[in-house]
Automatic annotation (TrEMBL):
InterPro entries: PEPTIDASE_A1 (IPR033121), Peptidase_aspartic_dom_sf (IPR021109). This is Peptidase A1 domain-containing protein. Residues 75-299 form the Peptidase A1 domain. The chain crosses the membrane at residues 373-397. Keywords: Membrane, Transmembrane, Transmembrane helix. Residues 1-20, 417-440 are annotated as: Disordered. Signal peptide: none annotated.
Length: 440
C-alpha cells in the first residue's frame, strides 16, 4: 500500500464547491494510496480496487472510519456496474434508529431501494452540483427548500421556529454528523419555544462535535417536523435528535454519558469570525432516521420518502431509462432522467409524448398520489437477469428560496406504464465526471 491516490488508480482531482469541507482539496496530493481486493457477500470480487488513505482530519474529524464514495464518478459504483453486479449507479440510505428500546440497523442499498423502509408520497428532483450561493445547487447535488420547521409537543400542539415569511434552502449531506445546521436565529427560536437551555454553555467535543450539551433533567421531550415546499413532511422523533452524549476513546470504542444530553441542531453566524462562515444550511445523517433517500447518478435525480423504521426488507431494482430500455423479464423500476422533471411533458401509456401545462405539472392535486412503493415519475416495468443486480444491503454498525416552478411533482406509474421493454445488451453507460460531497 504505497504511493499516492493517483498512482493507485484514483481520480487526480477533487472538485470542491461552496459548502465542501475546506481540506478536501488537499486530499489527492497528501493522502496515501493503494489497492486491495474488495468483495461484498453475494457480489463478485473486485480486484485491485484503489483506496485512498487520508493522513489528516480532512473533515474536522467527523469521519471515524474509512469513507465510501458514492458520487457521480464513484470508483466503487463504476466497478460494480462494469462487473454487471448493478444495472444502474443507484444508492439508497436509511440511517437507522439508535437510543431506542429495540435498535434498528441502518441500511445502504446499491442498485435500488428498500420498499419496506418507505411510506407515503415521495419527492424527486434533479441532482444539481453547484455552489450553494448564486445557484440552485449544492456541493452534494441535493438541495431542498424548507418552508417551515415545527416543534411537536406531547399534548398535540405544535409551534413554528421559523422567522416570519422566510424559507430555508438546505443541502442534504448524509455524511454530516448532526440533524441540522442552520443560521443561529433558528436555533435560538427552538430554545425559546422549547425552554431548552443549558445551565452553562458547553459544546460536545465527541461524536457529535459542536452539539449543545445540557443536563438530562432539562431535556425537551417533543418531536420536530420539517416541512418541504414540495409538500413532503418529515417528522424526526425526539430520541433521534436529543440524544445521550457520546464520546470516544483512542481505540475507537464509544462512551455514552447518560447524565448529559446533546441537541443535534447547530447554529452558525455567517461572519468572518465563525469557523462555519459561508456554510450552507445542512440536513445531516440524523435527518435520515426519519427520511429515506435514494440517489440515481445515471438518471441525475434524488428521491425522498418518509422513512418507515422497519426491520423487514424488500429490495427493488431501479434503472434509468437507457438501461430499462435494454431489459426484459424480472420486475424493477425505471426512473426517467432529470430532464423529465423539468420539461412540460409526460409519457403516456402508449409511449408517446403528451403536452402538459405548467399548472398541471406543478399541482399535485391534478393526479393521484403514488404509493410509497412507487418512485415519483417512475415506470414499473420488466427488467432482466443480466441487469442482475445484487442489491446488497450494507448494515451500518452505528448508527432555492422556493419559486413555484422549482418544485417537482410526478405522475403515478399507471400513467407512465410501458407494455414492453426490449432485450438488454452488454453495453455500459459512460460515467459522469464530477464527484459529490461524498468521496469518489
Amino acid at each position: 500500500m504505497e504511493g499516492g491516490i493517483v498512482e493507485a488508480g484514483g481520480s487526480p482531482n477533487e472538485t470542491t464547491l461552496a459548502g465542501t469541507q475546506d481540506d478536501v482539496k488537499k486530499l489527492v496530493k497528501s493522502s496515501f494510496g493503494g489497492t486491495d481486493d474488495v468483495m461484498l457477500e453475494g457480489v463478485n470480487l473486485i480486484k485491485d480496487f484503489p483506496i485512498g488513505i487520508p493522513v489528516f482530519k480532512w473533515d474536522a474529524g467527523h469521519t471515524y472510519l474509512h469513507a465510501l464514495g458514492l458520487g457521480t464518478n464513484s470508483t466503487y459504483l463504476n466497478a460494480l456496474q462494469k462487473a454487471g453486479n448493478i444495472g444502474s449507479r443507484v444508492w439508497s440510505m436509511f440511517w437507522g434508529r439508535a437510543w431506542v428500546k429495540d435498535d434498528i440497523d441502518g441500511s445502504l442499498v446499491l442498485g435500488g431501494y428498500d420498499e419496506e423502509k418507505v411510506t407515503g408520497d415521495n419527492y424527486t428532483a434533479p441532482l444539481d452540483y453547484n455552489d450553494y450561493v448564486g445557484s440552485s445547487g449544492c456541493f452534494t447535488g441535493m438541495r431542498v427548500v424548507l418552508s417551515d420547521i415545527k416543534v411537536n409537543f406531547r399534548n398535540g400542539t405544535e409551534k413554528s421556529i421559523f422567522p416570519t415569511d422566510t424559507a430555508l434552502p438546505c443541502c442534504i449531506d448524509p455524511h454530516h454528523h448532526l440533524l441540522l445546521d442552520a443560521p443561529t436565529e433558528y436555533v435560538s427560536n427552538f430554545q425559546q419555544v422549547t425552554g431548552l437551555f443549558a445551565s452553562s454553555e458547553a459544546y460536545s467535543r465527541g461524536f457529535h462535535y459542536d452539539a449543545l450539551m445540557f443536563e438530562r433533567d432539562n431535556a425537551f421531550d417533543g418531536d420536530i417536523t420539517f416541512h418541504l415546499d414540495s409538500g413532503l413532511q418529515i417528522r424526526v422523533p425526539n430520541d433521534q435528535y436529543i440524544v445521550p452524549s457520546v464520546g470516544y476513546q483512542s481505540n475507537g470504542s464509544r462512551i455514552r454519558d447518560l447524565d448529559n444530553y446533546e441537541l443535534l441542531i447547530r447554529g452558525h453566524n455567517d461572519d468572518a469570525e465563525s469557523h462555519l462562515q459561508g456554510m450552507p444550511a445542512l440536513l445531516g445523517r440524523y435527518f435520515l432516521t426519519a427520511a429515506y433517500l435514494m440517489v440515481n447518478q445515471d438518471a441525475g435525480t434524488f428521491t425522498l420518502w418518509q422513512a418507515k423504521p422497519s426491520k423487514s426488507s424488500k429490495l427493488v431494482r431501479v434503472f434509468d431509462e437507457e438501461m430499462g430500455d435494454k431489459c426484459g423479464a424480472k420486475s424493477g423500476v425505471i426512473q426517467p432522467s432529470a430532464s423529465a422533471y423539468t420539461a412540460t411533458t409526460s409519457i403516456s401509456a402508449t409511449g408517446t409524448t403528451a403536452s402538459k401545462g405548467d399548472e398541471e405539472i406543478n399541482n399535485p392535486k391534478g393526479s393521484s398520489s403514488p404509493s410509497g412503493a412507487v418512485i415519483a415519475g417512475a415506470v414499473v416495468g420488466s427488467v432482466i437477469g443480466v441487469c442482475l443486480i445484487i442489491l446488497g444491503v450494507l448494515y451500518l454498525l452505528h448508527r432555492r428560496v422556493g419559486r413555484r416552478q422549482d418544485t417537482y411533482y410526478y405522475y403515478t406509474h399507471e400513467e407512465m406504464e410501458r407494455d414492453q421493454t426490449p432485450e438488454m445488451d452488454a453495453s455500459q453507460q459512460k460515467p459522469a465526471g464530477v464527484p459529490v460531497g461524498t468521496r469518489s
